[in-house]
Amino acid sequence: METFVQQILNGLVLGSMYALVALGYTMVYGVLNLINFAHGDVLMIGAMVGLSILQLLDHYFPGLPGFVQLALAILGAIPVAMLVNVLIERVAYRRLRNAPRLAPLITAIGISILLQTFVMAMPWWGRSPLPFPQLLSSEPIMLGGAMISQTQVLLLILAALAMVGLVLLVERTKMGRAMRAVAENPRVAGLMGVDSNSVIVATFAIGAALAAVAGVMWGANYASITFTMGVLPGLKAFCAAVLGGIGNIYGAMIGGLLLGIIEALGAGYIGDLTGGFLGSHYQDIFAFVVLILVLTLRPSGIMGERVADRA
Amino acid sequence: MSLLSFDLTHQPRRARLSMAALLVLMLVFPFVAAQFGNSWVRIIDIALLYIMLALGLNIVVGFAGLLDLGYIAFFAVGAYLTGLFSSPQFAALLESVVNYHPAIGAALVTVFGPDIQANGIHLSVWAIVPLAGLVAALFGALLGAPTLKLRGDYLAIVTLGFGEIIRIFMNNLNDPINFTNGPQGINMIDPIRIFGVSLAGEAGSQSTVYIGGFGMPSVNAYYFLFLFLCIATIFVTSRLQHSRLGRAWVAIREDEIAAKAMGINTRNVKLLAFSMGASFGGVAGAMFAAFQGFVSPESFSLTESIAVLAMVVLGGIGHIPGVVLGGVLLAALPEVLRHVVEPAQMAMFGKVVIEAEVLRQLLYGLALVGIMLVRPAGVWPSPNREDRPTAALALDDEKEAAAV
Amino acid sequence: MNDQFLLNISGVNKRFGGLQALTDVGIQIRPGQIVGLIGPNGAGKTTFFNVITGLYQPDSGSFELDGKPYSPSAPHAVAKAGIARTFQNIRLFGEMTALENVMVGRHVRTRQGVFGAVFRHKAAREEEAAIRTRAQELLDFVGIGQFGNRTAKFLSYGDQRRLEIARALATDPQLLALDEPAAGMNATEKLALRELLVKIKNGGKTVLLIEHDVKLMMGLCDRITVLEYGKRIAEGVPAEIQKDPAVIAAYLGGAH
User: Fold this and answer.
1) Same domain, C200 and C163
2) Residues in chain B whose beta carbon is closer than 8 A to a beta carbon of chain C?
């Protein structure tokens, strides 16, 4: 049984990845009132592309430092993920902007399946789990009685940088202002000269970029990726977004980190709490239990929801 | 589709003829297909069970407009219940209780007796089916209860969560007390025995079932049973649709606030939708377990929930003939493709370029996306009547109240 | 126990966050009357309606129907107690036929459940036939009897309004509460609506209605209550209301 500090650390690592993905969900929900069910699969695409880049690098430029390889993998995965997400919006969701709300959700489910099918069908990816190379030293860093790997430290740093960057974008730039306006009231924003379509495209793109980072780091952290890897983390990230307050990017960050910690602590202590009846295999349940509790007790989440007035 | 009609109210003669023709076709099918090997009939057997699932889900999604993404949980409940009470599994359960808490274990053994301790419980189909239906209905109400005030997409994710929770429990409830035997699942489940005749055939008969002097392969015997159950399901759901309750469901789907204002207790009516839908899932699950002889958690994942939803959506949400068609297309077609496409690719290319599994997923994905973009009412929607939910849950409650 | 009033409501307060939408509002309606609720936009008329019919929970208030207290806690309970309503923005069950819409109105006065639906025993069949007959009667009563089999969303605007009234009548209410039934109607349609409302009143029903068409109200209502900024500023027969200075000020924006 790991120490409390270790579990908190594990939780922060897991939570950082949830936070990155939750941001994508929350931003899209904020402007479109749509759950992009396929967002978890964008994480998976990011991981897959990252892996392919690493394989190519290994083939054509062997001997590059691990850190550089990871950086290139991430930099390469980001544009592909952005393209995929933007295409999805353009081809599927845009046509369903005014459809009853279940139609986009059902379509999103279909898109999720298609993304997985695509990866399944590509001979260089396929159906079986693929090993993700360990590029950074596996020597753990000791931190107050707990261990953390270099990969995990990098993940925390990247996640923090991404979140800070996003906050700066949203609060300080013109595009960020436009995003906030559309998130509040798209029609009025349009009247003020904001092109809500380009804002929506930007929202999808940014979300995808964050998911790509999470995807590559997920692979680096767990050393294995597979075409179904995005589904459950995606759903949990959505639960995290609701926990923090859907549509609220600070909420997504807090919710993500909090959910990661809840899962880590829960998995660690559930055996004790239930007298050995439930074990750590039940870890995946926590996210859904949290979701149900939040929606029943405090539906607007920890930091309050911010959803567009699309009346 | 105008030649074929199942609309009893508006085209009674044509509907009756269509149904009769279809019935004859269905009755003759296994004898014809058996010429080409048992696998075709087996495919349809499983397809029939999925059609039952789709019809059950149609009550929840199609009639009442509640997007349930965890429906397969009820299939699992029925299947695992059968696994527990129609196989040696209960013996394993007792053993695990004895190991965990000897005093309680000993007490239970005294209650159940040495026969059950050695062999487990083996309820007959006449007990298992109602039990599966009832327990599933109970779960339906339990899982539906927290969702009653949620708006459409949140309801979907919460039901999905419940589906996952059930699956995780099924996968892990083997320690310390062995209810479900974990990832390995439960096997040696009894086949169905009706009036003394086992549908798996007696030992040594090479899976041949003898009724009177007449013998047929086991898959054919199951076929007729499942066909009967399917027809019963169609009958019951159709009666429900055209009744006071069915109208209440559609009213909730169309405008929940107006439905409440007209005196409909939406909480109870929604719970009824969940329960009734779930009960069909439970019965189908019991049949599935007995047919296969084993159950394992991997048959009850999110992928399956989505597959059943795809059948309902593709076929024609709310329209029973459409849902049946959707079930046939998405349950049978992928299997048929697998038998046809892979050998064809082998013959043409010498290897399998596109695996059948990929094709199946492709079919489901394209079905969902394509239908929503091109023909949201489904491939065979109801002919411009109240069955068609083009406005399912358009607004959430707060906005509705404000607009009132 | 005051059995003179059919509907006796008093002391209703409702606050939405920082906005006090209703302050100590009440209304008293005698059986067989048509009572109007008027006031400038934003006065709280629909909010009051929503409170009476259970869509909003009031912060305080006492509610009595036919001498018995009723709890406005849930819309379906209110309908069962005997208040049926229509909506400002017409809320029909669009995909159902007109007849089916009215049949849904019979739900609260009928009983058949799952058993009856599946087995269709004699009692169930009889109830279903009675529902259908009554629904057709009501469609005839409001004047759209020939549109029974038309899908509701394809009816004309005026016919949709009638359908909503027929559906509300199907619940056998003691009080029929109509939220702006004449909205969007032209003069001819309003005349027809007026005739229908008189017909309903003559059939013994009590009606409460919100309307903006002051002329229509003055000619139709037995009594009128006026709201402004969430408070009741006047109540009386139309002749009194027309002359009331507070009312005139509210509509024409006199000195406050």
Assistant:
1) no
2) 236, 239-240, 243-248, 250-251, 254-255, 257-266, 272, 276, 384-391, 401, 403-404
B404 contacts C87 by C-beta, under 8 angstroms: yes
ipTM entry: 0.92
Provide the terminal-to-terminal Cα distance of chain B, rounded to the nearest Å. Answer: 41
Domain that holds residue A201: 13-123+146-297
Q: C100 is written with which tokens?
A: 């089916």
- Give yes or no: residues C154 and C254 share one domain: no
User: B393 pLDDT exceeds 50?
Assistant: no
In this structure, which amino acid lies at residue B334? P
Nearest CA among A259, A248, A104 for reference residue A180: A248
CATH code at position B312 = 1.10.3470
pTM of the shown model? 0.90
Residues of A in contact with B182 (CB under 8 A): none
Q: What is the CATH number of the domain that holds C73?
A: 3.40.50.300
pLDDT higher than 60, residue B391: no
Q: Nearest Cβ partner of C91 from B250, B258, B384?
A: B258
C135, C58: one domain: no
Q: Given an 8 Å threshold on Cβ–Cβ distance, is B175 in contact with A279?
A: yes
Per the structure, the complete domain to which residue C69 belongs is given by 1-82+173-256
- Among chain C residues, the shortest Cα distance to B389 is held by C95
For chain C, give the mean pLDDT: 90
Distance, CA of A112 to CA of B369 (rounded, Å) = 10
Give pLDDT tens digits for C163-186: 999 999 999 999 999 999 998 888
d(CA C146, CA C157): 16
CB contact under 8 A, B372 and A116: no
- Is pLDDT at B403 greater than 90 in this prediction? no
Minimal CA separation from A133 to chain B, in Å: 27
